[in-house]
Specification:
Elements lengths: L24 H27 L11 H14 L3 E6 L4 H15 L1 E4 L11 E10 L2 E12 L20 E8 L13 E15 L6 H6 L7 H37 L6 H22 L4 H11 L2 H23 L6 H11 L5 H10 L1 H21 L3 E6 L30 E4 L9
Parallel strand pairs: 1-7
Antiparallel strand pairs: 2-6, 3-4, 3-6, 5-6, 7-8
Length: 430
């Protein structure tokens, strides 16, 4: 997508604010689900902090590395984050049931001469042009023939096309298109429809489908309850990931904006992003080298460069923290991480994979080390997981202003907000 030294830090606190009572049963259920997500997110973050190995400041690290680590540590203690948990709706549960039905379904290729229908899956080669230049490239990629908010009308226009066939489609990109420079522009798409297939979907209450869902359920209602519980865990993990993401950006704003970041590292990061998003597919399509260079130059705009600079700074900062606090990742820990991610893999298979990919083990160890450095810093901040407040209500302080009350005194009763805090002094008046 490490914890603080075991010898320091305070016990995490649980604090909350009154949220009011929703007026309808549906609102009560949504509130209950959001609260369950926020509580589980707080527990998940605390488990990660508690499970992290102890860190100890190294006396051998000096110079810029020490300075960067100390500045990051000092800034982390002043960061306060509020991460909102979204409620789990009935539509979301139903969507997951449909995804499971699709996963278990059998594909049936469209016969030769049979047209594409709404709901089909199609394999496409696609080039998107804006202002006469390529901005999007896909090679042999599968898509669902259904409305896509970022490409309005594109996939619906494939209904009736008989594969294999080539079509050129034009549309106006929406104002929320992910690539900022392309928003609102009229784009042309050269699309090759290679093949199409439909899905033979089982009914949600089919006993065979329920058995194949691997959730040990006998009824559709039991399946929905299981999926709802899974969604709580999933949303909680996403909340923790958002906390990490937001924390790094807060840290960058407070510490990294004035730091020197080598231009060559920023250039490398930009080039890698371009290759992943556009460049590799352009090469597969046989786009000329001149066009690829022009695409890279346009991709390397001011906004993208700022994002690349931030990413490079974050990696360098976490490396400095890992060095200064003696954070390491052993080969045994790398093996355990792989096993935890894919339990069916045997130890001998892990050994074989790592032996045949000499750089893989080092890359995993590096990422694990940096992740521990991130958790070490995050453990010094205050992170609160709570429900999304009603739009017509202002947030109230976790502890009323001017009150000396604390969670331990019982003056503030925990509700939907969970604060995981380590080593943080609350500002006066909170």
């Amino acid at each position: 997508m490490p914890g603080p030294p075991k010898s320091s830090g305070s016990t995490p606190s649980v604090r909350g604010r009154p949220q009011g009572t929703p007026s309808t049963g549906g609102a009560r259920e949504a509130k209950k689900d959001a609260r369950a997500v926020s509580l589980e997110a707080g527990r998940a973050l605390q488990r990660a902090l508690d499970a992290a190995p102890a860190a100890q400041v190294s006396t051998k690290v000096e110079g810029p590395t020490k300075k960067t680590a100390e500045r990051a540590w000092a800034a982390a203690t002043s960061i306060e984050l509020k991460i909102n948990a979204r409620p789990i709706t009935a539509d979301l549960v139903q969507s997951r049931v449909d995804e499971l039905r699709r996963l278990i379904s059998m594909p049936e290729p469209r016969a030769f001469g049979q047209p594409v229908a709404l709901g089909d899956e199609v394999q496409l080669d696609m080039l998107g042009y804006s202002d006469g230049k390529v901005f999007l490239a896909q090679q042999a990629a599968w898509f669902d023939v259904r409305p896509n908010p970022f490409l309005p009308g594109l996939f619906e226009a494939l209904v009736g096309v008989v594969p294999p066939d080539n079509v050129v489609l034009r549309l106006r990109l929406p104002d929320n298109y992910p690539v900022e420079d392309q928003r609102g522009k009229v784009a042309a798409f050269a699309v090759t429809v290679q093949r199409a297939q439909r899905r033979l979907m089982p009914e949600a209450d089919d006993p065979i489908f329920l058995q194949l869902s691997h959730r040990k359920v006998k009824t559709r209602k039991e399946l929905e309850q299981k999926i709802e519980a899974e969604l709580v865990d999933e949303r909680a993990r996403l909340c923790v990931d958002e906390a990490k993401y937001t924390f790094l950006r807060q840290l960058y704003v407070r510490v990294g904006l004035d730091d020197d970041v080598p231009d060559e590292l920023v250039d490398d990061e930009l080039r890698n992003r371009w290759k992943t998003q556009v460049g590799d597919a352009m090469a597969l399509h046989g786009v000329s080298v001149e066009e690829q260079k022009r695409s890279l130059a346009e991709f390397s705009n001011e906004r993208q460069r700022a994002e690349a600079r931030r990413t490079v700074w974050e990696f360098r900062c976490l490396e400095a923290v890992a060095d200064f606090h003696g954070i390491e990742a052993t080969e045994a820990e790398v093996h355990k991480l792989i096993h935890d991610m894919a339990p069916p893999i045997r130890s001998s298979d892990v050994e074989s994979v790592l032996y045949q990919n000499a750089t893989l083990s080092k890359e995993i160890a590096k990422n694990l080390r940096l992740h521990r450095a991130l958790l070490l810093l995050l453990g010094k901040a205050q992170v609160t997981f709570g429900e999304v407040p009603p739009s017509d209500r202002l947030l109230t302080p976790l502890v009323p202003s001017g009150s000396g009350a604390s969670a331990s005194s019982g003056a503030v009763r925990p509700t939907g907000d969970v604060t995981a805090a380590r080593g943080l002094r609350r500002p006066s008046g909170r």
